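Incident log, structure service

09:12 report received: a user says their structure output differs between two submissions of the same chain.
09:20 pulled the input from the user's history:
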Amino acid sequence: MFFLASLDGMLCVSLQNTCELVVWNPLTTKFKKLANSNSQGFYKVDSDALGFFVDSSDNYNILHIKRRRGTMTVYIYSMELNSWSTVRFLKHCPYHHYTYLWSPATLCGGGLYFVVTQCHGRSDGLTVIRFDVNSKSFSELCFPNVYDDEVSGSLVNINEELHMYVCIGNYDYRREIVLWRLKNKSWMKGHVL
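09:34 re-ran on a clean worker, output below:
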């Protein structure tokens, strides 16, 4: 199985042989398969993205961004309702194409955040996508102001503030790591490692 997301002790995993999504509580050993006959709840490791969140009504949900044959569909599974619903993604955005790679989701301050990278890895091909867990809407955020041929970013929630570790340079050359913090939809440069 592939471990995709966790929240409050529950795990969301994908079964390797069937690609079915499963919510599993390892402490109680209870689990629930999320796949259905409408092909919802099936996860492809190389193309999909997923996040686990609790909304304002304390309902546990799974956000599943599904990319197939050049299209993107976004589903939300509600554990309370035991059903899937569809959510609209951003208009006129190219992120459905397979040349974009999606990071695992980071839950922070009422949002799920993803780093979306175009395959060439240059800073002009990077963006951050935010999913508001209460309004169920998406927005784009800029990537930290870094210009280099080799850039990557990893998100982390530190005390309910979104931070990003940005690696600059390649492995054969001097590599710099900078910690950035998101404040009012802008990135503030922090420590350099």
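09:41 both user submissions now match this output. Likely a transient worker issue. Closing.
09:42 reviewer note: The first strand starts at residue 2 and ends at 7. The chain has no helices and 17 strands.
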